[in-house]
Amino acid sequence: MRLAILSALALSLLAMNAANAEPLKPERKIEATSDFAGKKRKAATDISGIACRPPAGGEYRCLLVNDESKAAQFAMVSQGAIKPERPLPLIGDIAPGARGRQPAIGCPQQGGFGEFDGEGVAYSGRHFYVVGSHGCSRRGGEYRPSSFLLARIPLDNGQAGTPELSWRVADLLAAAGEVAPFLGKRLDTETNGLNIEGLAVIGDRLWLGLRAPSLDGRAFLVGGDIAELFKPGSEPAASRPQLLAFPAGAQRGVRDLAPLADGRLLVLVGPAQEQDAPYAILLLDPADPTAVRELGELRERKNAKAEALTVLAEERDDLRVLVGYDGVKNGEFEEYRLKLR
């Protein structure tokens, strides 16, 4: 009862904050110097995640994914431009050597091994991480094993090594309490099927941001131990996941995550499916998720869905962040400045 009262109060405060705030305005556009790799050799129009290493000489080396590919793609960000580099294959036609066991998921239809369906990217120390959607396909409701993988890309002197793969995220989701029954359900408003769209790493913990389910104005994060996810062998993940629920606003779920230096998270939220719900950036402390605070809504953009977020600079209470969009050519990235107070 006490948790329900706190959640209702937090939702009310979140709504009041949003109603009184002006939409965020971008500082500038970040233009792509060439096309990101999309399907059939066309420019990508489905950028869905980004993370960047700390800057070196004023440049940021970033990794991006789009959800219609078997690869990720590096890029350099500097002086108002983003320069695509060559793609990095994450999988082929199979996933040899993946840790854990391929999950048996009860989607309405069974499909074949296809795209990685990358939805979230994170960076920590000497690794980038990329996570698949872990949801049934949006149109056909198919179980495609290739979208139920987590990839870890080692870096050696800035050079990317061979991606390591794990099936064990599905083990976390199947044990994640309130959201577990939504695993393997259709991605629609009626069944509210589980779908990952955000990823962040803080210390030894990996956080998965769920676009859906969205329940009573709450969105969810699922946390797991990185060492457990990538331990050798075929055994399933043994440790219990951590489930965080936080007020995100009606019919909204996580679209991306970005960690701050103090362990808090920026959460990009938007429609859980295709509802008319605004996109916004929230500030979340995993130690106190009900105290989440909205930093501002993003302006409406025709055919553009905000799905990629990364922090470029953090100075006291000022942040510079990069936001990219699905549905438009090359992500049409924009730089925003955020005030934490």
- Would you list the SSEs in sequence order as H and E? HEEEEEEEEEEEEHEEEHEEEEEEEE
Note the quaternary state here. Answer: single chain
CATH level 3 topology:
Tachylectin-2, Chain A
Integer count of domains: 1
Describe the global form: globular
Compute the separation of the termini in Å. 31 Å
Strand order of the largest sheet: 2-3-4-5-1-23-22-21
Query: What is the averaged pLDDT score?
Result: 93
Name the poorly predicted regions. Answer: none
Query: Architecture, CATH level 2?
Result: 5 Propeller
**What's the CATH class, please?**
Mainly Beta
Q: Total strand count, please?
A: 23
Structural class determined from secondary elements: mainly beta
Describe the structure.
This is DUF3616 domain-containing protein. It holds the Pfam family DUF3616. InterPro entries: DUF3616. It comes from Bosea vestrisii. Keywords: Signal. The structure is a single chain. The strands form five sheets. This protein has an eight-stranded mixed sheet with strand order 2-3-4-5-1-23-22-21, with no helix packed on it. Strands 7, 8, 10, 11 and 12 form a five-stranded antiparallel sheet that branches. A four-stranded antiparallel sheet has the order 13-14-15-16. The protein has three helices and 23 strands. The mean pLDDT is 93. With 341 residues, it is mainly β. The two termini are 31 Å apart. It has one domain: Tachylectin-2, Chain A. Strand 18 and strand 19 form a beta hairpin. It is globular, with a radius of gyration of 18 Å. The chain is 9% helix and 44% strand.
